[in-house]
Design a protein that fits this description.
Layout: E1 3-4, E2 7-8, H1 12-20, H2 27-34, H3 38-51, E3 54-56, E4 73-75, E5 81-87, E6 91-97, E7 103-110, H4 117-135, E8 142-149, H5 174-177, E9 187-191, H6 192-204, E10 211-216, E11 220-226, E12 229-231, H7 261-264, H8 266-275, H9 283-291, H10 295-319, E13 323-327, H11 335-348, H12 351-354, E14 358-361, H13 368-381, H14 384-393
Parallel strand pairs: 5-8, 8-9, 10-13, 13-14
Antiparallel strand pairs: 1-2, 3-4, 5-6, 6-7, 10-11, 11-12
Organism: Streptomyces fuscus
Protein name: ROK family protein
Family: Belongs to the ROK (NagC/XylR) family.
Length: 394
């Protein structure tokens, strides 16, 4: 522990990482875990204290302003803020969080992604202003911005890559939109299902390194945390289950035929409900009808669950996760949707893969995208190499 490439890690960032994750919290523990000399540890801790990244732990001998230095240190999650936005096809939620992804204030409302990035991002920016004011935080305290997006985000460029479904967003330089107001603040862009998986695993299942998140809303996606790491694939396209071919004859909004979304996405369920003379435009409309016991809505949502479950069964067979968690707006239908997913997964997977498998609704609920986006930004901001670079400039 504390050894990288055969040499003792010498950076303050590694000490902060150990303190944040509670692997070591006293000087003696940090010396042992890092392999650094005690004087070096003392010097690095002084830098972290002065930068505000750590504080003396409550009840420590040095937690008061007088007396000998404290022996116990804690990460100061209030040492900065993150602005997070969770964008769906028909909604937007934003929040200001601390550096532990704790939500300080949130806001949001409906959006039309088809109106294009500049219009939607102006709304996001207005919400950012509102949550900063509501939380009493200043723009100068913002350390990072994170956007969770409903389309695929190319890992190398950070640009949306969705020419058929989000044509106005395709290859648009989103980071540049915030450059003037938030100069030098990093902007992180990620697929919303990916960050939902990250947030759920970090906050609700920290001892579960292998988790599959299904984002069931107006669109269908999934995110994977494997061996404790967010899995994006080589280009960022991992988890795009909504457009796997299911062999049907219906045309998807992507232009292909037979995609999972044509059976299971909110837009497809709403389409079918309207053909049955039900007023359904959004995922919230579908959930409301389901909760009211509308037989057609219940039947369609249950069937959507079976369709999603048939794909999840294949993923369970390939990846063998410990947890499958279902989030997104349609997940508010709870057991109606989950029952269909469980039915298909247990019928279509090997008994060993499902023996200890937990299939549950998202424990973060509607906050999963916000918490996950803030977690992504914070983890990159607080990475050991990033901390060392920040302190070296200071």
């Amino acid at each position: 522990m504390g050894i990288r490439n055969g040499r003792a890690a010498a950076g303050a960032g590694h000490l902060l990482d150990m303190i944040r994750n509670k692997r070591a919290r006293t000087r003696s523990e940090l010396v042992r875990a890092s392999g650094m000399a005690r004087a070096t540890v003392e010097n690095r801790l002084t830098g972290l204290l002065e930068a505000g990244y750590i504080v003396y732990g409550a009840g420590s001998p040095g937690s008061a302003s007088v007396g000998r230095p404290a022996e116990v240190f804690e990460f100061n999650h209030r040492s900065g803020t993150v602005l997070a936005a969770d964008l769906g096809l028909d909604h937007c939620r934003v929040a200001v969080t601390d550096l532990d992804a704790g939500i300080l204030a949130s806001a949001g409302g409906p959006v039309d992604m088809d109106s294009g990035p500049e219009h939607v991002l102006r709304e996001v920016d207005e919400h950012f202003t509102a949550v900063l004011e509501r939380s009493g935080k200043a723009a100068a305290e913002v350390r990072a911005i994170a956007l969770a997006l409903p389309g695929l985000v190319e890992a190398a460029t950070g640009r949306v890559n969705s020419p058929t479904m989000m044509g106005k967003w395709h290859a648009y330089y989103l980071r540049g939109f915030f450059a003037e107001r938030f100069a030098k603040v990093p902007v992180h862009l990620e697929n919303r299902a990916h960050v939902m998986a990250l947030g759920e695993q970090r906050k609700q299942w920290p001892d579960t390194p292998d988790l599959l998140m299904v984002d069931a809303g107006m669109s269908i996606g999934s995110g994977l945390v494997l061996d404790g790491r967010l899995f994006r694939g080589s280009l960022g396209a991992a988890g795009d289950i909504g457009h796997l071919n299911r062999g049907g004859s219906r045309v998807c909004r992507c232009g292909s035929v037979g995609c999972l979304e044509t059976e299971a996405a909110g837009w497809a369920i709403a389409r079918d409900l309207r053909s049955m003379d039900r007023e359904a435009r959004t995922a919230a409309d579908i959930v409301a009808l389901t909760r009211e016991g509308d037989p057609d809505a219940v039947g369609l949502v249950r069937q959507a669950g079976r369709a999603i479950g048939s794909v999840v069964a294949d993923l369970v067979g390939v990846l063998n996760p410990s947890v499958v968690t279902v989030g997104g707006a349609l997940a508010e239908a709870r057991e109606t949707l989950l029952a269909g997913i469980r039915e298909a997964v247990y019928a279509g997977s090997h008994p060993l893969a499902t023996r200890d498998l937990q299939i549950t609704h998202s424990l973060l609920g509607g906050d999963a995208g916000l918490v996950g986006a803030a977690t992504l930004a914070s983890e990159q901001l607080l990475a050991p190499e990033a901390i060392d670079a920040q302190l070296s400039k200071g």
